[in-house]
Specification:
Blueprint lengths: L2 E5 L1 H10 L6 H10 L4 E5 L9 H10 L3 E6 L3 H10 L3 E4 L15 H17 L3 E6 L3 H10 L3 E5 L1 H4 L4 H20 L3 E5 L7 H5 L6 E4 L1 H10 L1 H25 L12
Parallel strand pairs: 1-2, 1-8, 2-3, 3-4, 4-5, 5-6, 6-7, 7-8
Helix pairs in contact: 2-3, 2-11, 5-6, 6-8, 10-11
Length: about 260
């Protein structure tokens, strides 16, 4: 529970800014693991704007924890994933113009296209997850398509403008988490999570894995990646411990989980 997948795409983005060979995302993966990351996440985009095929190959060879490949439901990328065999593939929507993945995959609408891709990946022994918005219909569609897991888009929570909006977004996440569990799916969370907003969501306690990129890489500019990962891991562990104490000793308490101290 509360495992941390570190998304290293941003390291490749810096490299691509100069089209050179540094910083190397492969080094970043090793540093993140030395800092205590439970997994490494990368997105092989169709336009190869940051991570490229060489990176994917080397990550597969060198990552000692769990390797999670984010990808579109594109037949060419599915073929690459089947050959590469990462531990997990997370299917995401992908648009050329976007800065980063915006929102979740519409599994309800794309069910017919998604189901065969899920089957191919599962047949290759890969755990398959879907990145979706916290919506009950999307969650149950994931179960119907044969996904093993899902990752709830935490963007609305992360971009909330005030405490009320944040609390509402957290409630939606908690409700979708429960539907996921009831459907027999493993539930992850990701997008826009930071050192400042991680605690309330981590205190929900039901997410298996958090995939975090931008905030950790941004912090790493000042303290180094190993330390940045250590700090995030510490927050996740503290949240779990705090949730456990509340559960055990104050089960009826209406604990204010907003904004970590
Ligand atoms: N999870 C998924 C599916 C994503 O697409 C991304 C962004 O690449 C992340 C998590 C990480 O988001 P962030 O960089 O905002 O932490």
């Amino acid at each position: 529970m509360n495992k941390l997948g570190v998304n290293i795409d941003h390291v490749a983005t810096v490299r691509q800014a100069r089209q050179t060979d540094e910083p190397d995302p492969i080094w970043a993966a090793a540093e993140a693991e030395l800092g205590g990351a439970d997994g490494i996440t990368f997105h092989l985009r169709e336009d190869r704007r940051h991570i490229n095929d060489r990176d994917a190959e080397l990550l597969k060879q060198t990552v000692a924890t769990k390797l999670n490949m984010e990808m579109a439901i594109d037949p060419e990328i599915v073929k690459i994933a089947v050959k590469l065999r990462p531990d997990q593939c997370t299917l995401v929507p992908e648009k050329r113009q976007e800065l980063t993945t915006e929102g979740g995959l519409d599994v309800v609408r794309l069910r017919r296209r998604i189901t065969p891709a899920v089957k191919k990946l599962k047949n290759a022994g890969i755990v398959v997850s879907a990145f979706i918005e916290p919506d009950a219909a999307q969650v149950t569609a994931c179960a119907a398509c044969g996904f093993d897991a899902l990752e709830l888009w935490t963007g609305a929570y992360a971009h909330a403008q005030n405490e009320r909006e944040q609390a509402e977004a957290l409630e939606r996440l908690a409700a979708a988490l429960e539907v996921g569990w009831d459907s027999g799916l493993v539930v992850h969370a990701g997008h826009g999570l930071t050192y400042r907003n991680i605690k309330p969501i981590a205190m929900l306690g039901g997410f298996s894995e958090y995939n975090i990129g931008h905030s950790i890489i941004a912090r790493a500019v000042f303290v180094g990646l190993r330390e940045a990962v250590r700090e995030m891991k510490r927050l996740l562990d503290q949240a779990l411990l705090r949730a456990d104490v509340v559960d055990r000793f104050y089960p009826e308490a209406d604990v204010d989980t907003h904004y970590p101290n």
